[in-house]
Amino acid sequence: MGALICQSLLMEGVAILNTLAYGLLSLLTNETYSGYDLTQRIQPFWPAKHSQIYPLLSCLEQEGYVRYELIKQNDKPDKKMYAITDAGKEKLREWLAVPPAEPALRDELLFKAFCLGSIVSPQEGRQLFEDRAAYCRSKLDYLDQKKKAIQQSAEWPSTTPVLNSPMFGIYILLDKGYRRFEAELEWCEDVLAMLEG
Amino acid sequence: MGALICQSLLMEGVAILNTLAYGLLSLLTNETYSGYDLTQRIQPFWPAKHSQIYPLLSCLEQEGYVRYELIKQNDKPDKKMYAITDAGKEKLREWLAVPPAEPALRDELLFKAFCLGSIVSPQEGRQLFEDRAAYCRSKLDYLDQKKKAIQQSAEWPSTTPVLNSPMFGIYILLDKGYRRFEAELEWCEDVLAMLEG
DNA sequence: CTTTTCATGTAACAAGTTACATGATTAA
DNA sequence: TTAATCATGTAACTTGTTACATGAAAAG
C-alpha cells in the first residue's frame, strides 16, 4: 500500500498523501519519534497498526517529507528516529488550511444499546454499560495524569494554557479527550440508572 | 466483498458476519427498511456507503438472516423492504453478549488542533474551530428535534424513558449524540476564547 | 435548467487489520 | 515460564471509498 502512494503522483509531480500521512507529519512538528513511538502516539487521534505506519514512513522519507537517523542501542533493538523536513512542513501547512472532513466514529456499543428496547435484556444491558463506564474511568484517570504532567513541566509558564507554547496543541487535545469520556461516562451512569428504576 | 463473506464459513458451516452486518440486523429489529433507508440511518453509528450496504444485504439474505419484499412504486423507483428473520435475531442475540470492541474515532481536526502551538496560525485556528462549532450546533439542533418528536409520539407513554418501549434504544442514542456534540461545542468555544485572549 | 431525492447495483481502488517473521530484555 | 516491551518489516486479507451506470420525479 505504501508503495502505491509513493508512485501515485499528480500531473505536476506532487505526491498525494492520506490523512494518516498528514497525521504523522503533525506529530513530528514538535519532536522526533521512531515508527514505534508514532504508532503508539497516533492511537487517540487516528487508530492505526504498525503495519500501516512503517511503510508510510519509508514512503514519506522517499518523498523527502521526513528524514531519519539510525540510533544504535545496546539493550534494545536499533531504531530510526524520524524528523520532519522543510518540505514536509510546507506540505503540512498546505493541508492545514483545507477544511477537515467530518469526524468518523465507529462504536459497536451503539448498536447493542439500540437493541435495549427490543432483544437485549436489562441484565445484558447492565453488563455492557458497566464495562463501558469502567473503560471511560480508566481513560479519564490516564488523561488527568497527562494533563497534570504538562502543567508541572518547565515549558508551561502560567496557570492558563499559552498559545505560543508547543505544549498548547497537546494540552487542548488532552482536554478534548477528557471532556469526551466525561460526557460518555455520565451517559453510561444515566442509562444504568434507567435500567435499575 | 459481499460475495466473499457469503462464502466464508466456519468448519461448522456458520457464517462470519462483520460489525456492519450486525449493525444492519440491529436496525431491522424494530422496523423494516430498504437498503436506501438503512444507508441513511446507519450513518450516526457506523459510517458506510450504499456500495457497501447493498451487497451485504443480499449476502445476509442468502444466509437467511434477512428477507425482503419487493415494493412497486409509481412515482419513485421500486424498492426492497428488508425484515430480520428468526435466524437473524438468533445470530444477533449471540453477538450482543460478546463484549464490544473499543470505539474508533477518526477526526483530522485533532491533527490540525495539535499543530496550533507550532505551525498553525491563530487566524487559521479560529477558522477551524468556528467551522467545527457551527457543525456541532447543527447536529444539536437536529438531535433536539428528533428527541422531541419521540417524546410526543404515541408509543412514548411517560415523561421519563421507559425500558419496555421499542423507542428506548433510539432515545438513549439520540441522548448520547446530544451529549457528545454538547461537549465538543463547549471545547470549541473554550479553545476559541483561548485564541482570542 | 440544474440539482436533489429516491432507488439499486457493480468495478476499481485505497485504507486498515491480521498474521507471519525475528529476537533480545525484563517484569510478573 | 510465560507474557510484555521494544523495534522493524512484509504478505494476505477485509473493510471502506470513489467512480461508473441508470432513470424518473420534484424542487429550486
Automatic annotation (TrEMBL), chains A, B:
Domain Transcription regulator PadR N-terminal per the UniProt entry, residue ranges: 24-94
InterPro entries (alphabetical): Tscrpt_reg_PadR_C (IPR018309), Tscrpt_reg_PadR_N (IPR005149), WH-like_DNA-bd_sf (IPR036388), WH_DNA-bd_sf (IPR036390)
Pfam families: PadR (PF03551), Vir_act_alpha_C (PF10400)
Residue ranges of every copy of the Transcription regulator PadR C-terminal domain listed in the record: 105-196
Membrane-spanning parts: none
PANTHER family: NEGATIVE TRANSCRIPTION REGULATOR PADR, TRANSCRIPTIONAL REGULATOR YQJI
Protein name in UniProt: Transcriptional regulator, PadR-like family
Species annotation: Paenibacillus curdlanolyticus YK9
Lineage: Bacteria, Bacillati, Bacillota, Bacilli, Bacillales
